[in-house]
Every structure is written in structure tokens, then in C-alpha cells.
Amino acid sequence: MITLYGLALSSYTAKLRIALCAKGIDFVERDPPGGYRSDAWRAIVPTGTLPAIDHDGFLLAESEAILEYLEDCFPEPSLLPGSAQDRARARQLARLHDLHLEPRVRALFPLVRDPALRNTLPALASALDERVGMLERMTSPAHPFLAGPTLTLADCGFAVSLPLAALILKHLGRTLELPPRLLRWQQAALEHPAVAAGLAPWRVATEAWLSSAGVPS
Length: 217
Ligand SMILES: N[C@@H](CCC(=O)N[C@@H](CS)C(=O)NCC(=O)O)C(=O)O
What we know:
The structure is a single chain. By secondary structure, the protein is α+β, with helices and mostly antiparallel strands. It has two domains: 2-73, 3-Layer(aba) Sandwich (Glutaredoxin); 84-212, Glutathione S-transferase Yfyf (Class Pi), Chain A, domain 2. The protein has helices at 11-23, 39-44, 63-73, 84-106, 109-113, 121-137, 153-171, 180-191, 193-212; strands spanning 2-5, 27-30, 52-55, 58-61. The structure holds glutathione (GSH). The site of glutathione has 11 residues, from helix 1 and helix 3.
């Protein structure tokens, strides 16, 4: 049995939930024991981050390590393409998400609650646009998904972070402009049943977070 420790509002939990749904793996979802960022949770997972999984007593954190572990334990359906080159490219894109794009989305979080920081929005939005442009250039026009004709682990993080960026920017009165290949990708990704299921609790929690922050002045 797999327990997914995470929270509805957590982007990386949603990334992993999408992968679990895509692989058709049965799982139960629980809040982290003791709560987010608690000492009790850090005693279980030293990084204190979400998500983590418990697979029959084996505990693992870090979403990429978890995705690779799930791929090893539950190879079908695979979330990696067939050739060594294509698999490497999928992993490269997944790292691009975690290391280069998601932090630029996360940098917008403080602006949601603190109007005093809104003067930093143009610089933060253009830093994000730069990373979106990088992703567009790394995406093939030949396929609807980022690393091939089907959903792979390369898609799971972006399928959360790009809609999140769009929602936050909209809340702050701006629009996330996606270039053509990413627009086509977004449509394919959001229509994928695993993405829809994986994002459902995250979307409710994110919309509640943004509306509780009030309308920015
Ligand atoms: N590299 C980690 C990042 C996970 C992460 O940053 N999760 C956020 C929630 S979405 C978190 O736990 N933040 C709390 C913290 O960093 O203390 C992964 O891929 O799992």
C-alpha cells in the first residue's frame, strides 16, 4: 500500500499525485503527521518537505526520487519514453522544472499576501517569462507532450507550475503568455485524465488561498 503524505495546496504533492494517477497506482493521501513544517514531520522526513511516500514501511521524500522509485516498482504504464536518449531528455526537462522554473513561480508567493512587494512584480514576471521561453525552446513541435507522444514524468511538474503561475499572475492583474508549443502542450496536459484528477484538490485549495488573500489593490 502507498501512502502519499502531502497537502492539497502543495505543488510538489500535486506533481506526484498526477504521476500516481497516470500509473493507476492505488494510494491513500494523508496530511504530514504533526503538520507541515512541524518538528514531528522533520523527525520522519529530515528535509521536512512535501511530498513523501510510505510504501509498505519504506519512506521516501523528494518528488523526482519518488517518481523514479515508482517507475522501478510499477513499470507499466511507463512514464518514461523508450530510448535512452528520450529518457534522458525527459529527466532533463523534469530537472529544468524543479531547478529553474518552479522557483520562479514560488518567488511570486509573497506578493499574494503583501501588497508592499507588488513593485517587484515586473521583474519577477519577466524572470518567469525567460524560463518559459527556455522551456519552449526545449520542446519539440512534433509531440503534444513535453518529451514525446504520451504523458511522461517530464510533464508532471509543469502541469502544476504553469497553471499556478497563470492563477497567481491573474490574481495580481497580469496574464501568463504561453508561446505556441506550450499552449498546445497545456491543452493536451489539462485534458489528460491523470492531470485532471491530480490537479483537482490542488485547484480547489489554490483558488481558496488566492481568494482568502483578497483582491489586490
Ligand atoms: N525538491 C523537493 C521540493 C519539495 C518542496 O519544496 N515542497 C514544498 C511544498 S510544495 C515544501 O515542502 N516546502 C517546505 C520547506 O521547504 O520547508 C521535491 O521535489 O520534493
